[in-house]
Write a structure and sequence with these properties.
The chain is an alpha+beta fold. The protein contains eleven helices and 20 strands. The chain is globular and about 60 Å long.
Length: 404
C-alpha cells in the first residue's frame, strides 16, 4: 500500500532544494532496472520514474495523484502495465492442467470470456491472483503480476513438466514480444472505438477478442484494475508507442497518462487486492474474500492445490477475513494494528490511504472472524496513537463494469 504514499512523498520532496538527493535515492538503481518500450515516452511526457518490481515505472506525471484519480473516474486514464507477464497455455489438456493450479472453473468458461482467479499452493495459500481467459478450449491466456513473475513461471513450469511427463498435452509461450496497456474510465469505449472496426458495444466485462487496433494485431480484454469500465490491450511491442499516442489523441486530451500512484488509489477505492499487501502465500482465497471465484463444480470436486484447506474454510468459515475500513486521524498504512474498542489486538491493516473521490481515509485489512461485521467499531493504531475506525462494505466507490 506504499505506492500512493511514495508518490506523495516524491512530489513533495522533488519540489524542495534537496531534489537531487531525493532523485538519487529513488532512481539510483535505474541502470539495473528493466524498461518497457514506452519508457522514453513516459519520460518525454513528464513521468516521474521509480523502481517497481524490478522495472522503471512512472509513479505519476505532471498531475497530482489526486487529480489523476479523479480524471480516471470522470474521463479516463491510460496506464502502461507492460511490466506484467502475459502467457498462453496451449494444447488439448490446457484446461485440465490449469485447473490443477487455480481455483476457477476454467472448463465452465465460454470461449472468449475470462475471470479473476487465484494460483494456490499445497496449503491453500495464494501464490498470486491472475486474470485468465479461455480463448478456445485449447488456448488459455493468463496475465500474472510483475512482482510474482519469477515464482509464478517456476511454479507453472514445475507442474507442467510433471503433467507432460505423464502424457498430458500442454505447452506455453511467454508473451515477452508484446506490451500491455490499460485504458480505463467512462470514455474508454468511445475513444478505443475510433481505432478499430470491431463493435465494442457488444463486448462486455471479462470478454476477450483478437482484433486489429490502430493497425496492430491485439488481444483485447474488457477488464481492468480501477473499478471503472475499460480495457487491457496486449499489443506487439513495436506498435505500443503509436497505439498509446493514438489513444491520447483520439480522446482530445481527456484521457491522460496515469502512473502507479493513482492506479493504487483507484484499486483501493474499488476494494481490489494488491498481491504482496492484501494477499500473500499464507492467505487463502476465502480469507481474502475471493470465495466467489471458486466455481460450484470446483467446490464439489476440488482437484486444485490446497483444496482440502480451502473447501473446509468455505464450509466452516475462515479464522480471519478481509474487511474495508473508514478511519479518523492520519490515513492508516500497511501493518497498522487494528484493535477492538477494549484495546485487544484483532488484526492488521494491509492497504490504506486517503480516497480522492470520497475525501476520507479508507483502508483494507484482516480481522478475526466474528469481528468482521459491517458497522463494527474499532481502533486503528498509527504511529503509536489509536484512532477511531469502523468496518464498512467494499467497494468504497461503486464499480462501473460494462455488463449486459
Amino acid at each position: 500500500g506504499g505506492l500512493w504514499q511514495l508518490g506523495q512523498s516524491l512530489t513533495r520532496r522533488l519540489s524542495r532544494p534537496d531534489a537531487r538527493a531525493i532523485s538519487r535515492r529513488f532512481l539510483s538503481s535505474e541502470a539495473d532496472l528493466k524498461k518497457t518500450v514506452l519508457h522514453d515516452f513516459h519520460v518525454a511526457n513528464g513521468g516521474k520514474m521509480v523502481p517497481f518490481a524490478g522495472w522503471s515505472m512512472p509513479i505519476q506525471y505532471k498531475d497530482s495523484i489526486m487529480d489523476s484519480t479523479l480524471n480516471c473516474r470522470e474521463n479516463g486514464s491510460l496506464f502502461d502495465v507492460s511490466h506484467m507477464c502475459g502467457l498462453s497455455l496451449r494444447g488439448k489438456d490446457a484446461v485440465p492442467f490449469l485447473e490443477k493450479l487455480v481455483v476457477a472453473d476454467v472448463a465452465g468458461l465460454k470461449p472468449g470470456t475470462g475471470t479473476l482467479t487465484v494460483f494456490t499452493n499445497e496449503k491453500g495459500g495464494a501464490i498470486d491472483d491472475s486474470v485468465i481467459t479461455k480463448v478456445t478450449d485449447q488456448h488459455i491466456y493468463v496475465v500474472v503480476n510483475a512482482g510474482c513473475r519469477d515464482k509464478d513461471l517456476a511454479h507453472i513450469e514445475h507442474h507442467m513438466k510433471s503433467f507432460t511427463s505423464k502424457g498430458g498435452d500442454v505447452s506455453w509461450h511467454i508473451h515477452d514480444e508484446r506490451s500491455l496497456l490499460a485504458l480505463q474510465g467512462p470514455l474508454s469505449e468511445q475513444v478505443l472505438q475510433h481505432l478499430t472496426k470491431q463493435d465494442l458495444s457488444k463486448m462486455y466485462f471479462s470478454d476477450f477478442l483478437v482484433l486489429d487496433i490502430n493497425g496492430a494485431n491485439c488481444f483485447l480484454t474488457r477488464t481492468g484494475y480501477t473499478g471503472e469500465d475499460g480495457f487491457e490491450i496486449s499489443v506487439p511491442s513495436e506498435s505500443a508507442v503509436e497505439l498509446a499516442k493514438a489513444i491520447l489523441e483520439k480522446s482530445g486530451g481527456k484521457v491522460r497518462l496515469t502512473g502507479l500512484g493513482a492506479r493504487d488509489s483507484l484499486r483501493l477505492e474499488a476494494g481490489l487486492c494488491l498481491y504482496g499487501n492484501d494477499m500473500e502465500q499464507h492467505t487463502t482465497p476465502v480469507e481474502a474474500g475471493l470465495a466467489w471465484a471458486i466455481g460450484k463444480r470446483r467446490r464439489a470436486e476440488g482437484g486444485f492445490l490446497g483444496a482440502e484447506t480451502i473447501l473446509k474454510q468455505i464450509e466452516t468459515g475462515p479464522p480471519i477475513r478481509r474487511v474495508g475500513l473508514f478511519s479518523s486521524g492520519p490515513p492508516a498504512r500497511s501493518h497498522s494494528e487494528i484493535r477492538d474498542e477494549n484495546g485487544a489486538a484483532i488484526g492488521e491493516v494491509t492497504s490504506g490511504g486517503f480516497s480522492p473521490c470520497l475525501k476520507k481515509n479508507i483502508a483494507m485489512g484482516y480481522v478475526k472472524s466474528g469481528l468482521h461485521k459491517n458497522g463494527t467499531r474499532l481502533k486503528i493504531v498509527i504511529r503509536g496513537k489509536a484512532y477511531d475506525g469502523v468496518i464498512t462494505k467494499m467497494p468504497f466507490v461503486p464499480t462501473k463494469y460494462y455488463k449486459p
